[in-house]
Amino acid sequence: TVVTYNALISGFCEAGKLETALNIFRWLEGHGYSPNTETFNAAIKGFCMVGNMERSMVLFQQMLRVGPPPKRVTYNTLINGYLQQHSLNNALRLFDIMKGNGCQPDEWTYAILVSGLCKGGKFDLASSLFEDMIRQDLSPNQVNYTTLIDGLCKDGKVDAALALLKRMQDS
Asked: What SS3 class is residue 121?
């Protein structure tokens, strides 16, 4: 079944044997099996892990063209992959595509973005996204708060960091 092949693809990706995983993926398609979202996610994650965003995006584009539609975890994986490559613009572009395709970001989407933006020195944008998350009626988790507090401190905005810490304690 596809579930069994998904496990194989995921295992080969985790072991760094991406070509083997991709061969299994292609074999599925050629033998009457329809890869599901988990099949795509396993392969996308594998290519993101080794920094091959081009191949990850080819798979993502295939999902957009013929299905299955990407899920939140698909977008989160790709956004994180771009941020690992220090490609902030591509990560933010994908975030916009995510929302434009009707896939609502969650707290982890924002945690990934805020962390990547802070690492990239974009503290004001990270703060703005944090506030956007709250406007979307999402409740920041400890990772969201801690990441931004750390970023604000690194940016010399200690008062803002302390205010955010108080806000976290009050929530």
From this structure: coil
